[in-house]
Fold each of these.
Amino acid sequence: MIRLIFIFCLILSSLPLTGQSGFTTIGGANFLGYSRAGVNLSGIEAIYLNQAGLSEVKNFAFDVSAEKRFNLEELTNISIAGAKTFAFGTVGVLLSNFGFTEYNEQKFGLAYARKLNRNISLGGQFDLLRYNVDKLGSKNLFSFELGMQLKLSKDFSLATHVFSPGNIEVSETTEIGTRFRLGLMYKPSEKVFLLAELDKLIYRPLEYKVAVSYQAVKELQIRLGINPSTEIYSFGILFQFQDKYKVASAIALNNNLGNSPAISLQYNH
């Protein structure tokens, strides 16, 4: 049974729907409610998809997120992140674990972000990517990622991010491919913002995602997203308490592989 699950996990990792692996789909409900269109988002959650957004962390922030892909325990991804802002910029750390005892992927990241001016933020992260395979051992790989966020006007912002520039060989048949993201955010009002994003893993077809967020009341935000390329449709909600505590939940729907629930807990000081 374990062997079958292991094979199933590897098969999923080769599909466009999950080809990003556990290293680039972390962050739980912070992004799942938007169908993972998150390159424009800022705050502590930015450490997962675009470190430039960490420049908006006011003082200190902490996030714990989890996602159960296709509702399988063996495909659970758990991530923990923290960030602190100093006079010279914002420093963040993250740890994520994806998989199960016989096979798992771990990511350790050290991030830095800084505002160049009121409209431009840059960020980057050094990564240790670790593969663990039962009875075969572990393999450590090093990589990095870079991102930028640009406010074009009070209503529009543009963001871009690249993960693992240059392919990294895991084995003779497996590589961690370079991944590019380009996103646009439009805020027609104080309660609504729209996201549109292009996502390209170097050896896979281009994906595009669109999402919308609606601030129903101060304490409640509603999120909807769609990724037509992979036939993922998502829904999420965010509860905010005392301007410090956030609880987000989301679910992604896919008719072929099943549903993926996620949750994120966050503290901002």
Amino acid sequence: MIITFGTQKGGTGKTTLAIAFANYISGLSQRKINVFDFDYQKSFYHKWKEDELLDIPKLYDVEIIGEEEEQPFSDFETLINLKESEEINLFDLAGTLDAKYSDLLIYSDFIVIPFEYSDVSAKSTLVFVNFLGLLESQAERIFIRSKYDKGYKYLNQEGMDAEISRYGTLLKSPVFKRNCLQNMDTRKLTYEQKYTVKNPFNELIEYINETLQISL
């Protein structure tokens, strides 16, 4: 299966959540986890390499995709094999739209879209969703509130929730704004980090299981 973390705007915590999810699912699933960094900045991969200095076993391997190729999945065979695999293949995309992502976005099983309630994030999220529509992507779209401040009243929350729910599934539980997520590594989740992400990630896993009729 292919689970892709993607947005149209950087700064929403996409890579942080991708790392957290890879760590979280590694502690729950018997399936092999493969991570592919498809972001220009290669933040996931560089963090994974940096964490080799830690005296902690790695949970998964991270591979760089598309560094020199204009269309890395032009033969489709690799992409189809990843999609049909029983392993969990997790992609982290850049916070921008690029034609080289098109095939992956079309054939992903799930696209996880972190967003915030700022005007810029709200607009860019809808641009990304419209882009998926133009591609005729059949991937399940899962929206997750990121850096959510439960003490703040977001004036556009009701309207934004209603709008994005037209295009996919909005997880009920947000990822609250927590400083502990700024110190993420690729080898483990601290107790505080796990507590911060467990509710939305459990919802996400339950949705995947029900949709594919499997158990991660």
Amino acid sequence: MIKYDEIYPEYGFAKHKGYGTKEHIEAIKKYGLCPIHRRSFVKNFV
């Protein structure tokens, strides 16, 4: 997740490791999905 954080810093992957924290969900709402997001993971809150 640290490498993905370098590519997609707006999502904060290094901090939350991809878990659905409040900050992560807010970033998805603000920036949309990036190529590594699982669609099944985000379907409940996007």
